[in-house]
Write a structure and sequence with these properties.
This protein has helices at residues 12-25, 36-70, 76-80, 84-90, 94-124, 129-132, 142-152, 161-167, 192-208, 210-220, 225-246, 252-255, and strands at residues 175-177, 180-183. It is an all-alpha fold. It folds into 2 domains: 38-125; 130-171 and 185-255, no CATH class. The protein has a two-stranded antiparallel sheet. Helix 7 runs antiparallel to helix 9 (192-208), helix 8 crosses helix 11 (225-246) and helix 9 packs across helix 11 (225-246). The longest helix has 35 residues, at 36-70. The radius of gyration is 23 Å and the shape is globular.
């Protein structure tokens, strides 16, 4: 908590007095302390996401190298299945072969470790009853449902759906005065892992859910692709709030109604 910049004197006693004064007024912001029992599993799932991001970096690197040297496009699934013999069959230069095989070696290690972490988390974590219904939401599977459950924690700490959307970084950050925008900031205040989870869910939803695809295309016709995708993730975050809080089934028609 930042005090007034014009203070001429400050020490621990003065700082404690300032915090006590804010607490007495009821305007001291408080944070949520995650339960220690589930903290280690949550951190393990975060580590899994970090490894997935690193694996994607190596996949893109191999894909670019192969495209530059062969003139052909490759799918990510084809890159994951590459072996030493298949690389040597496509690339004749031994230096380029070694460069690609080094990426393939790291890629295989990461894939193995990601699978191991997923299995370990799945064995330890059982979705709570209120989170079981998340599996019926389009675009959300086991990994995303567990991420949402472990990162959200106790849903009762969010009094309104807007508080949860803000925590998931799904809303704009603006400073308004007299109906005019005077600036923006604090965009990164919230949970980046929930933001990632709902963006991933939105990407999957537009592939497998016709209503979500129509909503996304309608938004994209008016604005940029990333803005349309963020708008869809915002709708999904709001829908999941009610699914979890009220322990009710996901209603596709209600979410994408006109």
């Amino acid at each position: 908590m930042k005090q007034y910049d014009g203070l001429k004197y400050s020490d621990d006693k003065q700082d404690a007095f300032h915090l006590a004064h804010l607490l007495r007024l009821g305007i001291l912001p408080t944070g949520y302390i995650y339960p220690k029992k589930e903290r280690a599993v949550r951190d393990l799932l975060r580590r899994r996401m970090q490894l997935v991001q690193q694996r994607t970096t190596h996949i893109l690197s191999i894909k670019n190298q192969l495209t530059r040297n062969t003139g052909k496009q490759f799918k990510s699934n084809d890159i994951i299945k590459l072996t030493s013999s298949s690389v040597k069959r496509r690339i004749k230069d031994p230096n380029i072969q070694e460069a690609i095989l080094s990426n393939v070696c790291v890629l295989n290690v990461l894939t193995s470790k990601i699978t191991s972490l997923e299995n370990r988390v799945l064995k330890q974590v059982k979705l709570k009853p209120e989170f079981q219904k998340l599996l019926k939401v389009p675009g959300i599977g086991n990994i995303l449902a567990m991420t949402i459950m472990l990162e959200t924690g106790d849903m009762s700490r969010f009094t309104k759906v807007g508080n949860y959307s803000s925590y998931c970084r799904c809303v704009n950050s603006k400073r308004m005065s007299n109906g005019k925008q005077k600036g923006q900031g604090n965009r990164k205040n919230g949970n980046k892992y929930l933001s990632w989870a709902y963006m991933e869910a939105a990407n999957f939803a537009i592939r497998y859910n016709e209503k979500a695809k129509q909503y996304y295309q309608k938004k994209m016709a008016k604005t940029k692709r990333i803005v349309a995708l963020k708008a869809l993730s915002h709708k999904m975050a709001r829908a999941c709030y009610y699914v979890i809080k009220n322990n009710e089934d996901f209603d596709n028609q209600r979410l994408f109604s006109s």
